[in-house]
Every structure is written in C-alpha cells, then in structure tokens.
Amino acid sequence: MHIARTGRGVAAATAVAALAVTALANAAPAAVPHTLAVPAVAGHTLVHGVSSPLSSEQCQAKWQINCYNPLQYRTAYDLNALYKKGVTGKGRTIVIVDSYGSPTVQHDLDVYSKQFGLPSTKVKVVKWGHVPAFDPKNEDMTGWAGETTLDVEMAHAVAPAAKIVVVETAVSETEGTTGLPEMMDAEKYLIDRGVGDVISQSFGATENTFPGFDKGDFSSIKNLRYAFKDADKKHVTVLAASGDGGATDLQADGKTYYKKRVNSWPSSDPLVTSVGGTQLHLDDQGNRVKPDSVYNDYGSGGGGQSHVFTRPSFQNGVKSVVGSRRGTPDISMAAAVNGGAWIYSSYDPTAVGWDVSGGTSEATPLFAGIVALADQAGGHRVGNIQQALYDLYSYHSKGTGIVDVKDGTNNTYEGVTGYKAVKGYDLATGVGTLDALKFVPALAKQQPRG
Prior knowledge:
This protein is an alpha/beta fold. It has twelve helices and 22 strands.
C-alpha cells in the first residue's frame, strides 16, 4: 500500500515533462503490506528556486504555463469583499497533517506574506511521535516539506487571520502500514482536545492497496476511521485531496498506475469532504478569461466511485451519477500546474526561492481556508458539511455560490478513461467550484448535523 502526497510542482530550467513519482522504500517485514509515504511533488518540479515570482505572461514566455499569486486567487474566488466585511478566518484554526513537516515553515510563510502584502500568522507545530531531525538530503523529507509549505501558504492565502497548526508525524511500522495510523492518532488527539475547526489532508492511498481489499475485506480501511468518526461528533470539518491520478491511481509500488478505474482513501470516506481539482484561466488581475476546466496536465483531478463505501445518503440526489457507490470529489478548487500557485521555501539550502506547485494538495488547503471563513461568519463550526454541500447544490441557485464546471474537459489519465465535466454534479469536479462571497455565508447558515 502506498500513501502518496497529492501534489504536483514545476521547476525552472528543465523541459516540461511529467515525471514518475519515485517510491522511497521503507523497510518492512517480508510479505507485510506497507504504505510508502511518498511526496508526489518531489518528482514533478519544473519551476523551482526562482528568485522572485513572475507574472503569468512571463511564465508563459519562459515555461509555457500560467502561474498565479494569492492576490489573483482572491479575485478569482471573490474573496476581497468578504475581507472588507471582516471575514478573514479570525478566531478559527486550520489543522494541517504532514509527515516530517518543514523546519522553515514559519520563516517561509513570513516571506510569502510579505511578498504579497498579506499579514503573516503564527504557525504552531505539533510533533507527533519521534519525528526525526530534518535532513535536507533526504528526498522523502524534502518532499513532505514541500507539501507542508504548499499547504500552509495556500490555507493562509484564503484565511489570512486563521490560526494554523501543523502536525508533523513520524513514519514507522504500525499494523502493517506506514504512516496512516500515526496520522489518524494525531488527528484524534487534537480533535479530543478541541484543537482545530477544519483538518486538511493532502495525502491518500489507493483503496485497492489496503490489506484484504482483494478478498473483499475492507476492515483495514474501516479500522482507520476512528478520527473521522470523532471529528463528526465534535463538528470538526475533515477534508482530503481527491488525488492526482484522474480516474486511476498508483499501485503499491508507488510508481505504476492501475489500468482500471480505482479510488483512494481518505478521499473516498463518506465522513470526509473530497476536494478535486480545476484549472483556472486568469489574467494578471485574477479575472477569468474563460470558465474553469478540469485539472489535467502534470496530473489530473482524482474522481470516481469508491469500491469500499456505498452511496451515502447525502449523495442520493446524484445517484444517477454515482450509482450505488460513494462518488468523489465533492467540490473542486485550483489544482492545475498550468495555472499553479507561487510558493516560497527555504528548507532545501540548495534551492531557496519561489516554486510553482499544483495538484489537489493545493486545492484542499485552499478549501480549508474557505471552511475557516464560514466558521467565522457563522459563529460556529460548520462541522461535517456533506449534507449542507449537497443541499446547497440541490437548490440550483446562483445565490448559493456553487459554480458549475461544465466545459466538457475530463480527468482521463495514464490511459484510463475518466469522467467529463458536464452540467450538474460529475465525477470530475463534484458539484463544481465556488464563488466565496456567496458560498461562505450560505455554508455558514447550514447548521452542523447531529
């Protein structure tokens, strides 16, 4: 089994090419299925260590891609009017879970914020377990540090006044898997102590790679759901990236894609809001030059039917699409590398500077920021938003802030036929994307269930 960090980055001076993720083998007992905590961004770097962010026009000239800054995102998602009303995420906390973390996360956020005129915020770091000292020569660690950087800066870009807690987990053998039990234990610990209003998870493992899956025994997944059940009771919103493999995903070796449609956990869990990916088409001010399309370039937005979970009641209204299974994603935000986000990092002393990153691990912390805004606007945690999200979708009103993605693009990837973005809910972008000025207050009005 393989935990992939869902993310894609591009780096300067090399040819634009989709590179395979390198599996970094952790020692495991013979014949014991194990999860390789592999950072996806490490293998997809084309724009890396640039001295300062460039405009989209300059990025097009240099690398034939668009690259966006947080000010463009704020315009694209209609956030500025919320900030003027004081809705900034103040008083709310976003929890970000990543193995190893980054030793420079606070410094890097400060530089990022100063570059774009944003107020910075204090990042609280919680170490779970015996997290080893950071080694900038360890590709596994630098990959997760890249993920941590992306997660923190994207969440902050949307909810600049929200508190951010980064949970660094150690990766060790537990119950035949590497990484996932530690992450779930850490999440439950924080939930039980009231830390965090929304949890952002930019990692996933293909359902088919869990022990017992091939025999129809899904207990290895279902036994890991305890943190999500706890979050549901305590009204903490849990998000997960839908993945970057389109309708397929990686096999246990961390390198080879399945030649059939598969899905990934925790994105496929009904207690989790699955965040998919779109491609934004913006001018330098952040205005759309054409409608959003499906993220499908150096990766593709994950989506499809779960093979483990049946259709939850909140998806009964879209059963003509999902059938009898849980369908993902639920909603989508920016993820394409061609249209990726500028981030700043200094954890690797050989590549200090600005990178362009994408993937559903960008979309997920962006949406975590949206949830923090809704928590503040409503004066309470919105909690498990699944029913609320599909209720808003069912109203088919522009007043809900849900924006359909329906341009016919798809998430076909690695030779596996995916799904098209069509009118209404689809397995490429879920209910679509959002206009925050309308979506945040609409979500804030929905009462947490239970």
